[in-house]
UniProtKB/TrEMBL annotation:
This is Flagellar protein FlgN. Pfam families: FlgN. It comes from the Bacteria. The keyword Mitochondrion does not apply. Gene3D superfamilies: FlgN-like (1.20.58.300).
Length: 166
């Protein structure tokens, strides 16, 4: 088992995450525009990306575990690329692995930030929709006259023009 196989998988993961990041930027614009049809299509594309990333991640875990076993290291439940970097003796491979890992982590961090922004935008949009619906919904208070006023039973006594005590 070589480090090159792990690097290839990491590069594929980086490529998929970059593509997902580009879609995330586009999704931000779609949320701002309110284009629900395009947003729906974007979500379908993102789901296929996430499925591909999950497959690559499973491959990465398997290859990392095999590499560590081949080196005589008992792999942990979740073996990481950092474990491989520590186990690698060739300095060139070690530095290449570190570079790929660093790029991947950077893309993932940027993707997290963009997704947080998108989540906030969607939340604000929902708040706006709810506020608009509340404004359009009739209130429970009666603005019209009450039943007594309509029937002529006004609680304010009417003063007559004729004073009987005079």
């Amino acid at each position: 088992m070589s480090v090159q196989t792990i690097m290839t998988i990491l590069e594929k993961l980086e490529k998929m995450h970059r593509s997902l990041l580009e879609h995330s930027y586009r999704k931000t614009e779609l949320v701002k525009k309110g284009d629900m049809e395009e947003l729906d299509q974007m979500l379908k594309i993102e789901q296929s990306h996430v499925a591909a990333i999950e497959t690559l991640e499973q491959q990465r875990q398997q290859v990392v575990t095999e590499y560590l076993r081949a080196k005589g290291i008992a792999p942990a439940d979740t073996s990481s690329v950092a474990d491989v970097i520590e186990a690698t003796e060739d300095e060139t491979e070690k530095s290449e692995l570190q570079a790929v890992r660093k790029r991947l982590i950077s893309v993932i961090d940027e993707l997290k930030q963009q997704n947080d922004l998108n989540q906030k935008l969607v939340f604000q949009s929902l708040q706006f929709v709810n506020m608009t619906m509340e404004m359009m919904r009739p209130s429970t208070e009666q603005i019209n006259y009450s039943g007594k006023e309509v029937r002529g039973q006004n609680p304010i006594p009417k003063k007559g023009y004729f004073d009987s005590q005079a």
